[in-house]
Design goal:
Ribosomal Protein L4, Chain: A, 15% strand, six-stranded mixed β-sheet, 7 helices, 2 domains
Amino acid sequence: MEIAVLNRAGEETGRKVELNPSIYSVEPNDHAIYLDVKQYLANQRQGTHKSKERGEISGSTRKIKKQKGTGGARAGSIKSGTIRGGGRMFGPRPRNYGFKLNKKLKELARRSALTYKAQGSDILILEDFSIETPKTKEFITLQNNLKIGDKNSLIVLSEANKNIYLSTRNLQNIEVVTTSDLCTYKIMRAKKIVLAESSVAKLEELFKINA
């Protein structure tokens, strides 16, 4: 699959980039995508939730009433979860929601996600560029030129660029990542993916690690 390289004005440069079919034209695996996205979202959870149980709240341990003869249920402590002001029964405790996934499965998930975007013509190739000083206005102009201003977009760079990152920090519908930080969740969340020209070769090198 060949895609024309665009410049910052949104015009074709006359060059084309061949997308590797082993990355952008595989048999998509929906379950691999599901597991990788699930792991990403699970890792975002802090897991610091906590509620006090009956052994952790303050209160008397005196038996409230006698065991028998009242006609009601027996009650031994005012800290019981069945009494107002008592501890919570089976409440949440701090935990880690993360779980392990094999590297090959995560790689398959990323390939599948990129394949879906390629099939939907949602991948654009932009010639490499840089910004001397952080300016959000320049990036808004770039979005309009590429006709992605009203869509959630993901810009993939071959290496980190602080000025580009700072220029997009205040824009809600655009995110800048490097090839090493590209994940299935961000690929699937974006409506359009803009690959810097040098990042295409970088991604091929990255996927060949476990090929």
